[in-house]
Structure formats: C-alpha cells, structure tokens
Amino acid sequence: MKKKVLSVILVAAMVVAIAGCGKRVDSSGSSADTGSKETAEESADIDTSENYLKGKTINVLLKSYTHMFWVEAANEAEMLGEQYGCTVNVLAPTVANSNEEQIELIENSLLDPPDLYIIVPADSEGISPAITEINDEGVPIVNVNTKISDESVSYDSFVSCNQYDLGYTTVSKAIEKIGEEGKAVTIYGKPGAQTYEERDKGANAAFDEHEGWELLDSQVANGDRNEAMDVMSTLLTKYDDITMVYAQDGEMALGAAEALKQSGKQNDIKIVCENSSAEICEQISAGNIFMTYDDAAWSQTEVGFKVANLILGEQKVADTYYSDIYLVDSDNVEEYAQRYAE
Amino acid sequence: MGFEKNNVISFIIKGSRVIVLVLLFLVFTIFTKNFFGVGNSSNVVNILLQTAPFEILLALGMIITMITGGIDLSIGANITISSFMCAMVLQYTGNSLAGIVTGLLVGITIGIINGILIAFVGLPPFVATYSMDWIVKGAVLVISQGGQINGFDKYRAIFNTWRGSYLLISIAVLILAWFLYSKTTFGKKTYFVGANPSAGELSGINSKLIVILAYAACGFVAAVAGLLYIAKLGAAEPTLGNSFTMAAFAAALIGGASFAGGKSRVLGALVGGLIIVVLNNGLIHIGVPGIWQDFAQGLVIIVAVFLERLMEKLQEKNKKGNNEKSL
Fold first, then answer.
1. Is A120 helix (H, G, I), strand (E, B) or coil?
2. Cα A255 to chain center, whole Å?
3. How far is A231 from chain B (nearest CA, A)?
4. Which of A29, A115, A180, A240 could be cross-linked to A79 through a Cys-Cys bond (beta carbons 3.0 to 4.6 Å apart)?
C-alpha cells in the first residue's frame, strides 16, 4: 500500500514538474530596436491598425523553456499578450525539444481550446499527430521558426527568419570583415534538425563562394555549451591554423570561446555565430566573440502575433513571412546589449 | 600447459578494457597527425585534464549504484541541480565555500532520497531514480525560470588556476571510493548485499542502510561533477546534465560494470571514462564526420560489451574444463 501511495505521489510530482512549464502569463516588457537590419525576404511590415486579438486566448508552444532563445521568445509573448490585451499561455516541454511532450501539451490544451495556436515544433514531422487534432478542432495555427513539413496537415502561415540566408549572411559578413583568405571550422548544432541543416547549407554556400577560404572540419556539439567546449578543444589540437569558428548558435559559441580562452588563442581565432543574449553581448564586448547575427526570437514572436492578429480578423495572410536578423559586433554591441539588459 | 593457457585467458579478461584503451590510443596515434606524438602531447594532456575527469566521475557515480544491483537515472539531473544551487549561492553571497557546501548537500540529499525510495519503500531503482530525474529537472526549471547564472570568477579561480585541478579532484574521489568499496568491511558488505540482498539481510547486514549510502555516495559524486562543471564552463545552466545520464551509463558499461549486483568494480570508472574520451577525441582527429560520431560510439560500446561477455563465457568454460580434469 505504501508503495502505491508513494508511486502516486511521485507521478503527481512529475505532473506538477511538467505543468510548471506551461504557465499562464501576465507581464510586461519593452523593446529597443537597435542593431543593423539585414534581410527581410518577404516584408513583415503587417498592418496592425485593428486589434483583433483583444479578449482572445493564444497558446504559444515553444521548443523548450531552458534555452535562452526560447526564454526570450516566451518573454516577448508575455509582453505582446499585455499589449494586445489577450490571454497568452506559454507552453514548453520540460525536456528540451521533446516532440512527445509537445504533442501531450497540445492534446491537454485542446480540452479547452484557445482561439489560435502559435507553434514552434521541435520536430518538423513528428508534431503532425497534434497538428491533425488541432485541424480537427478548427483552431487556426501560426507556425513559427521551424516549418511543419507534413503536407497532410495544415497551418495558416509560417513565420521565421530564412535559416539558409542566416547561415549565408553570417559567414559572408564574417569573411568581408576578416579578409578573403582563411581556414574555418563549423560547430554544428543537432544533426537532423531542419534549422541547423539550413544554416549549414547557407554557410557552406558562402564558404564555396570564396576560393581563399577552406572549411577544415565540421563537428557536432548538439547546441550544448559543454560539448562545444570539448569539441573546440579537440579541434584546436587537430589544426593549428584555424582563422574562424562558425558556431551555429550562441550557446555553442560560448563553449568555443571558453576553449579558446583556456588555450590562449582568443586573439588569433575569430568566433562568429547566430543568436544573441546578454552573455553573448558581454563576450562580444570583451572581444571573445567576433560577431553574431541575431535571428531574434522576439522579432519572430512579434511577427507571429501580427499574423495571428490578421488571421483572427479574417484578413488575408501570406504563406510565409520572414522576420529580420540583426548584426551584432563590436561597433553596436553596447547599444544592442540594452535589449537583453531589460 | 593448461595452467598457462588459463593464466593468459585470465590476464586478457582482467585487462581487456585496458587493452582496448591501449589499442585505441595506438590506432589514433598511428593514423592521425596530432592525436599524440613525441613533442606533441598537448591533445592527450588536454583530454586528461579537461575531459576525462568528468567522464570518470560520471562513470563512478553510476558504478557505485550498480554494485548494489541498482542504477541511478537521476545522475544527470542531480549534476544540474547541485551545480545550479551552488551557482545561486555564489551569486547571492559571493562565498565559494558556501556554494560548494550547498552543492554537495543538495547532491547527497537527492541521493539519500533515492536510496530511501528504493530501500524502504521498495520501489525498483529504475522507477525511483527515473521519477527523481523528472522531479529534479522540473525543480531546476522552476528555480531557474529557464535562465542561466554566470560570472562567478572568484569561484572559478579556485579550480582553474592550476590546470590539473579537475583531474586531481576526480582521481581523489575515485581513490576514496576504491578504498571504501575494496578495502573496508563496509565495501565487502555492499558487494555481498548487491550479489544477494536476502542473504545479506539474513546474515545481519543492514542492507537498507547499505543501499541508501550507495545512492548518497552517487549523489556526492554527481555534486562534485556539477561543481567542477560550472567552474569549467563559467555558467550554470538548467540543461547542463541532460545528456549525462546516458554518458555515465555508457562509460560504466565500457568500464565493465554489470547489471548483476556485486560484480562492478570501482576502478572500471577510470578505464571506462578514459575509453570514452579517447574515442570521442580520436574520432575527430581521424576525420570521422560529426554526424557519424554517435553511430561510431554506439557501435564501439556494443562491441566492447559483447567481447567482454564472450571472454567471460570462455573463462567459465575453461574453469569448468579444468575442474572436470582435476576430478
């Protein structure tokens, strides 16, 4: 009997732990658009003169609540909820990028369906069963950041920065700033994740365009700082002529920066990456990271809400909206860092 | 002649993991430019000082629970929470000692709770520690709100002033565990309880206490790993230990740990940890593309465990043959 009671308590505690990640939000924040805007393949300049979101409920499903990028997205969603006067429920799996948990969160939330879902799937295809259920309920969906690839399910619009362009732009800009010759290594995120694959294709295309540049190696660090540090330490012993490290996200760039610091090579090798955060801005200021392009979670979330507004106002929406990316380097980091200091 | 053959087989079995380690080392040294060479030892030094200490601790924590016939699936989450609590104390007090003590207490407490759930409540180790893994992960999320803590330079300086600190600490913990489990009555009782819990109980050993102490020890080792990790990375993250449980398990298995209680050896953590880090590092040096590395590692683990089991069977067969002859 004691065993049964304790098992029930443990299961209940697990449920509470999971529920801790799906929270009802009411908060505020502000933004300051700094940095240099670079790409907007399709204009995200959407008319929001009418507020159709007021009084509505929006469920925002993220990939995790532990990665700084998604924390930033959650904060932006909270702020926009207050701005539009709608109720925002931010949901995220306890295990980062867990498709199973995301499906479970959607299924549970469908017991009391919202007016609209903003969904960032952890798995482009794996999320399909949950999307089917939402489709059956007739709730509109704005797909953000990672595209739902199963053609048998439907969503109303897709919002993201163009990940291929992000990789391409970052490496092109880095080469422009560093010079026409050099040798690079890539610290790769998660194999199989569409976001990282697209960035990789874009970055490789940029390297291919510059004959003076050689891509020496590409190693996986799974978006993890510790793994990136170990991988970078190994690459430093394998190659003694690295000019540039292209880290596919900010977490891995921070790990690579730590490895460079420990080897005393932080002044010889330039780290370029994607994403931004207060810590990345600090490292750019300190000269440990050369530059980043911020694909700006807040910008993607902001466009997502604008599109949601159009959908609930029964306005016409495009299939895809590209959000902006922002260059952050030593020239503008002090100003840009203010966004993350808030 | 039979005696000599037995000796050779016995020697190979006992040293099989060391032989695997040496072979890997030789292969990577011969077939790569910068893995290791005369006057070119920076890579190996780096492995030993920066990566191996952590892998050894992970394997050690897991092996200690496997001696009792258990397993700790919450070791990664324990590393996360003990490191995060340490970082929080560092952030609020700036006192390194307070941070270290907090981290250790948190790790040991989680271990003790695991032990109580298994020994007194009777939950299977898999269920108890898997549940604990979820609870702790959830707790870290609530505490951290998804954010990170960084900037504790004074604390980091304690461990980073001398590069050998991580290795020294992990070896000290390993030696302590080896002494406890191989040279003391407590250790012998633990092996006895692991091999046959009911017989242990009947012979007057407090097997419940033995199990609790094993999980507490695992919690301590996890906390030490957590404290060292944040010194290495300069940041405490709510996702830090997410991949560590499987890494610990892999290193323990490669180090010769067995699911059957009372068989695993503490020093297996040293060899298991070293094999994993040499393999990870060597695969990069030999030019295996990043996306193939998980596959290659998994394959090596299966081959290593398979060969070991094969050698064990050979040894048993050999023993049986000799016994029959002597009769």
1. coil
2. 18
3. 8
4. A29
CB contact under 8 A, B146 and A74: yes
CA of B11 vs chain A CAs: smallest distance (Å): 34
Q: Which pLDDT does position B19 carry in this prediction?
A: 87
Q: What pLDDT shows up at residue A131?
A: 96
ipTM for the predicted complex: 0.85
Range(s) of the domain holding residue A235: 163-294
Which H, E and C letters describe A268-326, residue by residue? CCEEEEECCCHHHHHHHHCCCCCEEEECCHHHHHHHHHHHHHHHHCCCCCCCEEECCCE
* pLDDT at residue A123, as a whole number: 83
- Find the length of chain A: 342
Calculate how close chain A gets to B238, using CA atoms only, in Å: 6
What's the rounded Cα separation, in Å, for the pair A261 and B95? Answer: 25
Chain A residue with CA closest to B119: the answer is: A3
Query: In terms of domains, do A205 and A141 share one?
Result: no
In a domain, A100, yes or no: yes
Do A182 and A288 fall into the same domain?
Answer: yes
Of A84, A83, A64, A86, the closest CA to residue A74 belongs to: A64
Q: Give the Cα separation of B120 and B108 in Å (integer).
A: 17
Using alpha carbons, list the distances in angstroms from residue A96 to A69, A171, A248, B26, B242.
12, 28, 17, 38, 9
Domain B2-320: state its class: mainly alpha
Which residues of chain B fall below pLDDT 70? 1-6, 325-327
Which residues of A fall within a CB distance of 8 Å from B138?
Answer: 13-14, 16-18, 20-21, 94
**Of residues B141, B148, B240, nearest to A226 (C-beta):** B240
CB of A44 within 8 A of CB of A303? yes
Please judge whether B234 and A258 are an interchain contact, meaning their C-beta atoms are less than 8 angstroms apart.
Answer: yes
Instruction: Write down the H helix ranges in chain A.
Output: 2-19, 68-84, 99-109, 128-137, 163-178, 194-209, 225-238, 250-263, 278-285, 297-312, 333-341
Is residue B248 a contact partner of residue B58, using CB atoms and an 8 Å limit? yes
How far does CA A262 lie from the centroid of its chain?
28
For residues A260 and B27, what is the distance between their CA atoms, to the nearest angstrom? 27
Is residue A327 within 8 Å of A173, Cβ to Cβ? yes
Tokens of A305: 């809400």
Task: Answer yes or no: do A66 and A77 share one domain.
Answer: yes
% of chain A residues with pLDDT over 90: 65
Same domain, A92 and A175: no
What does DSSP say about strands A57-61 and A87-91: parallel, antiparallel, or unpaired?
parallel
* pTM of the predicted protein model: 0.82
Residue A26 has pLDDT above 50, yes or no: no
The verdict on a CB contact (< 8 Å) between A219 and B290 is: yes
Instruction: Give the pLDDT confidence score for residue B3 in this predicted structure.
Output: 55
The answer to whether A254 touches A225, Cβ cutoff 8 Å, is yes
